[in-house]
Amino acid sequence: MSQSAPQLSWRLLRVWRRDWLVTRKSWLIGFMTPLLEPILYITSLGFGFRILIPEIQYEGHTLTYVVFMAPAIIATNIMYTAFMENSFSSFVRMYYQKTYDAIRATPLSVDEIIAGEIMWGATKSLMAATIMATVLSLFGLVRYPTGLGLLPLAFLGGLLFGAIGMLFTAFVKSIDMFNLPIFLLITPMYLFSGTFFPLENLPNWAQSVAWALPLTHLVSLARNLCLGTVSWMNVLVSGGYLLAATMLLVPLALRLMRRRLIQ
Amino acid sequence: MSDNVIEVREVQKRYGTFTAVDGISFDVKRGELFGLLGPNGAGKTSTIRMIYGFSPLSGGSLRVFGHDITTGWRDVRARLGVCHQEDSLDEEMSVRDNLEIFAGFFGIPRAVARDRANRLLEFFGLENREKASVRELSGGMMRRLAIARALINEPDLLILDEPTTGLDPQTRHQLWEKLARLKNQGVTIILTTHYMEEAAQLCDRLIIVDHGKILVEGRPRDLVAQFVGKQIIESSPVCEGLRRFVTERGLEHEDLGHRMLIYCKDDENIYHEITKTYCQDNCILRMGTLEDVFLKLTGRELRE
Description:
The structure holds 2 protein chains of 2 kinds.
Chain A: H1 12-24, H2 27-49, E1 56-58, E2 61-63, H3 65-96, H4 99-103, H5 110-138, H6 150-169, H7 179-192, H8 204-212, H9 214-227, H10 232-261
Antiparallel strand pairs in A: 1-2
Helix pairs in contact in A: 1-5, 2-3, 2-5, 3-5, 3-6, 3-9, 5-6, 5-10, 6-9, 6-10, 9-10
Chain B: E1 4-15, E2 18-29, E3 33-37, H1 44-51, E4 59-64, E5 67-68, H2 69-78, E6 80-83, H3 95-105, H4 110-123, H5 139-150, E7 157-161, H6 169-184, E8 188-192, H7 196-202, E9 205-210, E10 213-218, H8 220-227, E11 231-235, H9 240-249, E12 253-255, E13 260-263, H10 268-277, E14 283-287, H11 290-298
Parallel strand pairs in B: 3-8, 3-9, 6-7, 7-8
Antiparallel strand pairs in B: 1-2, 1-4, 4-5, 9-10, 11-13, 11-14, 12-13
Helix pairs in contact in B: 3-4, 8-11
């Protein structure tokens, strides 16, 4: 039960199914947020900045601000959705509802519970990204077929940010402590990952820092997929970064949660 | 295969430097209702958790259904049900959904799950509340649902950690009746409780543990007969004359200051002698109980 090699099987889908069935009960809230969020952003930032920022230079392309910013709304939402799910929501299930304790009386391992939870977080990111991309498509802000790449990207990004959320769940003593990673990690990423302005506007050292952060790669890929300007180099570097980070952090999250839960 | 559903051998559980379970051994036989008693912090929950593979053992060996729990925990858990001390139901879900979703963890097909949920809802008198969310249920209903959920995989072994704590007497008695019926259906049950009356009524056999060790093991009635006798004289307040009498006669007793228990070991004449000479009104002759055994063995000072 406490071996260092993860004990994983397809049973993790049973945890995923549980989360799906429970979330389905309040589907309207889950559906409305990604539906309205892009509309709010586009109307506020689009109309608000239209006169201040007539156009923007991005990797040799001249774009309107809305076209530049829209893909970042999807990318940041992918980050927030999975991170929140596997930090606050997973903590509630673990600590207050004792859901994990209950499942640990069935033939499921701790690894399967946590992996199922991370997979569920990624699924939520995927669902939200699908709805948001659909809305943005109606405004002509997503090019196809490259735009379809947003779907696997959302799932991969969801796995990564879910694992990051779960890493903190493995440590925090109380639910309020999640404000710390949000303040120190998530919010700075939200502001400095090429989301609202091109990274080229930053000093060189800050650009280097930004490229070390996962959201920068998620935004870069999302933007190039939406614009139809995605290159193999882009996929290789940023996709490779996200994939490698996921393959590193998911097992780490499993390991740390095992340490927290198995006593 | 032996008749033992659970075989615990020299099992230890340590948390850092603290030893919660200190080398205990016992068996639970098929079809038995087995009690695990002890004061708070005695090691009951730690023991229970090792039985279903929730906590790894720090030492010793533990077999359930003949499987070593450390390696065969999946097979074991498929055949057992656990009702935790703390409620772990899905609050926002309905009563029925709680049962059917939990069935999913055992890989039970949906049609079978629905069928079993129907039967369990009826068995526990929850059929009229199947659509209610757990948040709307009373404490007693929640506990019934938690036990129903533990039965969704039709387990051969049911583990109940303080199932009746905090319930009113009506609900408690009703639960006892349900447990007796489950036992008649052949389910082996292991139970922890702080209610000695409950243990005395329900348990075929029990152990009393304290400081991680087993103090005694046996049938409730045998333990009462062995440690306190069938009858006890209780006097409150205690007069000096009685104190002298008890010491002179060398009677086994416990002097609690304002109250005295005299273990008269079935010698009724002692009671008549005492009431005649010392305290007509302050003395009663009553049955010895498991609670007397428990307090005698584990002491009367507060725990934790």
